[in-house]
User: Fold these one by one.
Assistant:
Number 1:
Amino acid sequence: MSVQPHVPDVENDSLEDRLYTVKYEDPGESHLDVTLPGLCAERCTTYDCVSVCPAGVWRKGNEGVPEIAYENCLECGSCRWACPHGNVEWSYPGTGSGVTYKKG
Ligand code: SF4
Ligand code: SF4
């Protein structure tokens, strides 16, 4: 007989509700890019940048090059490390812009 751990009855906000609390100041230009678009189109089979992003910033484009909705970026850095080809150009948005977390 297995013993089930006690799980407290806590109601968490949905991901959408939590994302709604994030404030974002548009830097006006993307702080994200790919170094070599042809590498994405011709060599990438996994599209880890798409699957790892918690905010849906990266989407597989028609030509095999990702489209990047940088405005939604949470600045977690995951896409930078997930790309198996080191093909993600990543930087923080300019001073005073980017994401602000209400709940830390
Ligand atoms: S994981 Fe890297 S190589 Fe693959 S599509 Fe994304 S940025 Fe391009
Ligand atoms: S830094 Fe995080 S939120 Fe921003 S694009 Fe990369 S994976 Fe998505």
Number 2:
Amino acid sequence: MSTTIELQERALPPHNKIEGGFGLLRQPGIVIFGAGQRASIAGVVESLGQSALLCTDQRMAVSAEFADIVSALKARGVSVSIYADIEAELPRTNVEDLVQRIAGESIDVVVGIGGGSCLDMAKIATVMLTYGGDVASYYGEFKVPGPTLPLVTVPTTAGTGAEITCIAVIYDPDLEMKIGVASPHLGASVTVIDPEFTLTCPPGLTAATGADALSHLIEAFTAKAKNPEPGTVETFVYVGKNSLTDMHCRAGLELMGTALERVVASPSDIDARSDAMLAAMHAGFAINTTGTAAVHALQAPIGALTHTPHGIGVGTLLPYVMRYNLPTRVPEFASMAELLDVADPGHSELENARAAITRVDEILTALRIPADLEALGVDSGDIPSIASHAIKATRLTANNPRELTEESMIRILNKAFTGDRSWWS
Ligand SMILES: [Fe+2]
């Protein structure tokens, strides 16, 4: 079974409280958000250079929106190279193909337009165009030696947060696993986030990306705090829950209280699409320094086994991991109840915490996320192997608020396999 390689990082001791208001954000230099704001892309790119490489996929490359962006760039005198063959899951061979095709060209700025793979490809392209060599030499954390070519990210889905994050995930066919290149140097100079791109997003992709963003907000908001020593923060990529990521989690969760169900009911409602995309952006800000936790640790081997889309897998797992984490995160889940507008001041903190979890269940049901692992194609006999792979994802499990063991993961997986939500511990 293939899985995601875990990035080695010095361990930080986990804490339940944020100390001294500690906060850490890494973010694009400029964030432009709003319906129709893709009209800003050409001007943004021109301000960064005179020759641009656009990284996208074949679906986007033939769209009217993409043609408009290319025309606007050319009208400003910016020379345009296009790589439009980006594949899902971004295989390493795809990166090597891009490097070969643009060899000898002079590129000033790289623009990623599309879903997570397109944005991740653009991040990697900035590294390869700046430093060259073998892409495998950048696998891991802090392996990118310094600043790279300017990067502009333009997401066309509302979920991965890849427009904000400083990690690119690649599938390496030789290693038979996904692997991350994580570096603060991968942050975008500018991100242009236009929710109009998502108006044509099909229901399945909307559900997968929406559930992914929701899981990011919840995993970041309920993560362990790690409180690195002053003076050491630049040596860590992920530092757990902190005061600045909490701000983004609160804003994102408040939007998620209605956004995803409104998108499902009215896919062409630009206000709903805008709220969902803004929530996904907030989630990107949060996970970029908190990291994710048990939901993502468990999804990696399930995705490898069943080829379930990432967002569908995390959406299926989320109700069970929330229940497992509840005993150690009652105040946070009770806060979530307020943000999701289901808190009752007459109820106890624990009752409100449970109400938040039940509300998330409802949102996932509205998205038609499968309710159990069997529906994803998992066999009950796979569960021990899934748990043994997931427990090795220490970068992720270290963020989880409640300690995880192989046995506790098997327990979560058994509940998720049968769809049993009749428990709260
Ligand atoms: Fe995710």
Number 3:
Amino acid sequence: MVNDHEHHSHEDAALSSLATLMPDGSRKWLKPKLAKGMHYHRRKLVAYGLIALFTAIPFIRIQNNPLFLLDIINRQFYVGGRLFLPSDSVLLMLLGVSFLLAVIGVTAAFGRFWCGWACPQTVYLEFVFRPIERWLERKSKIWATFLRYVFNAMISFFIANLFLSYFVGVDALKLWIFESPGEHPQAFLLVACVTGLMLFDFVYFREQMCTVVCPYARLQSVMLDRASWLIGYDRSRGEPRKHGKVKTEGAGDCIDCGKCVAVCPTGIDIRNGLQLECIACAQCVDACDDIMVRIDRPKGLIRYDMQSNFNAELQNKKPWHWRQLLRTRVVVYFSLVLVCMAAMTAIAHERNVFTSTILRGKGEPFTVDASTGLVRNLLLLRVVSRQAEPLQVMISITSEKENTSSLTWVAAENPMVIKGNARTESALFITAPSSSFSEGRLPVRVIFRDLESGHENRADFILLGPHAPESTP
Ligand code: SF4
Ligand code: SF4
């Protein structure tokens, strides 16, 4: 029988080094076995549902707008079919804050549920790449390695294109794919690089992405508390470990079969306690439940439970109740998410259906008509639509200083016509008497009014003109 002291020295050794690191510092390649238990079948359903969803999202349109698109090149972001521009900084900030709060809230309530059940890294690795590898190994030992690379390259190419479609849109991507690389050399290079990165990640890097790179794992310790719902090993029930099916006096339920370690995709031993490498995939739960059934002991030696229950003595364990989800911390996080979302909805509802910008025209800042003394400024107006339908935006000018009737303006088109979710630029000439200028400046206000909704944008602009001659006493 292994005594407690020996157990602790094993744990200390295990915890003092990375599970995927050999004593000589080289990488320990993992080849986790598969435990097909209840959680695995549920995760499989969720994973294939998510893969279908991830694939469908770039193709879904709402009122002709993409459901979700982060078009960084054109600085246009679509969320839920609504267009957000960099000028919507408050909305984008609220969106980011709500996302962050939701992540913290879900982690406080359910631990790393996201990692094991919904993260694309886990979903594609555990339910696409690994199943294909296992299938190939069963079919052909000789061709397995070669075919594995062919399949991996094909899937990586598909995922790379899918990933890019979230940033450039499916229409642009179709052109990149179906037209000659010579016509889009930069796009071709981009697709090739992203495919290479996907191959590197899913074929070589694998669990290192979760255990070394992903910052979420490192932050989990500050997000969890004693009531968080986690995967853990019930030490008070499992220890001391004892090999063999027959239970002896004083022995725990763990028979030290090692199945929970053999199935772990990050190579850790959950019996050593909560570790940042654990992605909560529940493979160890399925593996251990299967062993418990075989040796006729209750399931749940490794299970989902509150963190406090894993540390408590057997008699002090409290059954989990959904009321745990209503603890102050979790309620505060989700209330803040709701507040942010309500603020976003109110701001989005009130915001204008277009944005407008005024630039000074190129060339001379102003011209003076010698015969009439009128000063002419050239402005460049830019209007960006935020709606799918076309807009008609009427331009008018006012001035607090000058009688509006003495100002005249001519736009290249007035009203400006802007296609749905597009931008239009138009020249505008404003003419004012030279006597209106004080120290060569005349402040005016340019009003952009959408003829249909009545939404207005007002922008102040300084017209430039000649300095008035010094007045004689
Ligand atoms: S699978 Fe269960 S019984 Fe086997 S070593 Fe892990 S905890 Fe112990
Ligand atoms: S310890 Fe269990 S839940 Fe955590 S990653 Fe390993 S198998 Fe998955």
Number 4:
Amino acid sequence: MTIPVISRMPMPTEESAAFFKHVCPPTFAGDNPDPVEPTVRIARDLVVDFALALPEGDSVPMWIIEDPEDARLGRQFPSKLIRLREGDVVHAKVGAKKNTHTIHWHGIEPTPMNDGVGKHSFEVGASFVYQFCARQAGTYFYHCHKNTPLHFEMGLYGLLIVDPPEGQGVVTRLAPEQGHREHYDVEAFWVPDEIDRRWHELGHEAFMQKCDEADPVRRDDFSHGGILNDFRPDVFLVTGVPAARRDPKIVDPRVAVSAHAGQTILLRVLNAGYTVQRFTLDLDAEVIAMDGRPLGVPPYGVYSSPFTLPARTPFQLTSAMRWELLLKPTVPGTYPAQVEYFHWVTGKRLATVRTQIKVL
Ligand SMILES: [Cu+2]
């Protein structure tokens, strides 16, 4: 059988800019072009320089996304957590303090204009008010999507949590008899990342294409050198806490979990790095959601269901993957947990960072 070939219509000249923007994104600033009344307003500025102190005494230059309205907690790495409720309509005023940037609301799926993927829309000049709706409770994150390999590595990201309408302390999970809700007592965030310090000496536009609007795909205007395909991390961290090289065990309360026997722990895990990360916990865990979608819960649940990971059964996440796990320890003790970091190309294990879940 011959498959008929349907010829493509010629592209009208006035539309050609829409195709060029994949390689030469325009900049844009100002109000949202299609605003509705928001229920929540937030603000974020980028970039702000941040020195990440290492256990060995030196530090790594990072870039962070700041909350300019929070003098006390606005400057931290990872950038300050955004917490919303399902159904919230958000206006996020994003200021580009140095150069141009974007914020991509990863997994939220706003309209292209509001999704912060510069190559499909625009990069933010002075400032822009992004608009989106938090449609589905779950674990998400936000990050800059300009010169993405570098800007994400530099630290321009933070968690974005959408709670069910009841608010914090309740998670959406498969449980028809409970209206698909479960209460938790302790919430923990594991966000492993790793740092190649050579990349942290680069400029905002390192190895980006030189934009010639008259010939946006000219071969010579693309960089053919650079090191952003060559990742050699030597600092390994979890949720902003770097592990010591000699004894890579993290007991910082931002990472190590503490709960009482009989309590329910909700563990939100995000791979915010470029390695393949393998997690092993010494406690049984139930995986209830992946990538902002609760397993088994309508309307997306027809093809999935939660499952139990018996203690010491490893699971792996690649870049940007998010899992939600419920732990219900009943016996007091200190339970080890670890993250192993494997190189994205060679598969070689680069580091193992340990932490713990303490059950009182
Ligand atoms: Cu950026």
